[in-house]
């Protein structure tokens, strides 16, 4: 693949040199601060640009990877070939009565704060989730007893052929950390949330309480990929890891957090390979001690 030629063709669609980069370091765009280079990294600012790039990549058989704010993600050290599309410049949030429409690149935390400003209740659970709106839909993100499916009404998506679709919550098939978006390779443009009128003081009290719980229990002082493993049936991943004596275990620069065993933190210039090796060590140890198969919640992409 001729990267220079690809850059030139994509530049005609994006038309802003600040929104297209060649051989970009992806560690600059992930919460773990790890990851190799992207051949081409683009930041679309309109739905039209997204559609153009998606249609182009499909017709030309060029790999296309979608990147939100890189929170629950590990990008391997070999980077990503083809086009990486980062949606973090598409962050508009608006309100219509009890509905909030938010673009894919908006932080779900910002959407929950916007809901508070409009005295709307239902998104308090999201006040500490570090992902984007698109990421929240992709994995049906949840915390503290709430999840995206509870408040989602519909989503505007683009198929990998470049066709735009409006899908209802039922069509999105949201399950535990899963969705039709992940299964069908849809790209989320915007989400529509249906909330209820509420008391601003009570909404803020709930958000303050959840923020305190998160800050007191999670290792926010270090780069991390968030919760690494899904909750195994009948267990808690963090408790299994802790009871396996793995808290504080380190591979390279990455450590099982001493604050919360369900998290892995980058304490000393760790690499994606360090993360993957530590994940494998934890899975193997928990399997040996408790005969429980841990399944990763974090998404792993890219080349070795």
From TrEMBL:
InterPro entries: FAD-bd_PCMH (IPR016166), FAD-bd_PCMH-like_sf (IPR036318), FAD-bd_PCMH_sub1 (IPR016167), FAD-bd_PCMH_sub2 (IPR016169), MurB (IPR003170), MurB_C (IPR011601), MurB_C_sf (IPR036635), Oxid_FAD_bind_N (IPR006094). The active site is at residues 177, 227, 297. Residues 34-233 form the FAD-binding PCMH-type domain. Its cofactor is FAD. Pfam families: FAD_binding_4, MurB_C. Keywords: Cell cycle, Cell division, Cell shape, Cell wall biogenesis/degradation, Cytoplasm, FAD, Flavoprotein, NADP, Oxidoreductase, Peptidoglycan synthesis. GO terms for biological process: cell division; cell wall organization; peptidoglycan biosynthetic process; regulation of cell shape. GO terms for cellular component: cytosol. It is an enzyme of class 1 (oxidoreductase). It catalyses: UDP-N-acetyl-alpha-D-muramate + NADP(+) = UDP-N-acetyl-3-O-(1-carboxyvinyl)-alpha-D-glucosamine + NADPH + H(+). Its main location: cytoplasm. Pathway: Cell wall biogenesis; peptidoglycan biosynthesis. Gene3D superfamilies: 3.30.465.10, UDP-N-acetylenolpyruvoylglucosamine reductase, C-terminal domain, Uridine Diphospho-n-acetylenolpyruvylglucosamine Reductase, domain 2. It is found in: Cytoplasm. One of its GO terms (molecular function) is FAD binding. Belongs to the MurB family. NCBIfam families: murB, PRK13905.1. Cell wall formation. This is UDP-N-acetylenolpyruvoylglucosamine reductase. It comes from Terrilactibacillus tamarindi. The lineage of its organism: Bacteria, Bacillati, Bacillota, Bacilli, Bacillales.
């Amino acid at each position: 693949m001729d990267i220079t030629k690809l850059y030139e063709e994509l530049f005609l669609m994006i038309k802003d040199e600040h929104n297209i980069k060649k051989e970009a370091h992806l560690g600059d765009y992930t919460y773990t601060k790890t990851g190799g280079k992207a051949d081409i990294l683009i930041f679309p600012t309109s739905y039209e640009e997204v559609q153009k790039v998606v249609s182009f990549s499909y017709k030309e058989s060029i790999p296309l990877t979608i990147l939100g704010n890189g929170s629950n993600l590990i990008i391997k050290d070999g980077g990503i070939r083809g086009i990486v599309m980062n949606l973090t410049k598409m962050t508009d949030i608006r309100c219509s009565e009890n509905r909030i429409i938010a673009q894919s690149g908006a932080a779900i935390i910002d959407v929950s704060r916007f809901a508070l400003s409009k005295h709307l209740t239902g998104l308090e659970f999201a006040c500490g989730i570090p992902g984007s709106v698109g990421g929240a839909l992709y994995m049906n993100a949840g915390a503290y007893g709430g999840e995206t499916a509870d408040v989602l009404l519909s989503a505007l998506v683009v198929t990998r052929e470049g066709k735009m679709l409006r899908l209802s919550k039922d069509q999105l098939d949201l399950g535990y950390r899963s969705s039709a978006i992940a299964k069908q390779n849809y790209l989320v443009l915007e989400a529509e949330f249906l909330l209820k009128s509420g008391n601003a003081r009570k909404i803020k009290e709930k958000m303050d309480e959840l923020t305190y719980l998160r800050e007191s229990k999670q290792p926010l002082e270090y780069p991390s990929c968030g919760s690494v493993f899904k909750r195994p049936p009948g267990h808690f991943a963090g408790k299994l890891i802790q009871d396996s004596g793995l808290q504080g275990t380190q591979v390279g620069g990455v450590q099982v957090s001493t604050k919360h065993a369900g998290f892995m933190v980058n304490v000393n210039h760790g690499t994606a390979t360090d993360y993957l090796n530590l994940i494998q060590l934890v899975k193997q140890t928990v399997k040996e001690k408790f005969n429980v198969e841990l399944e990763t919640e974090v998404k792993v992409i890219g080349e070795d």
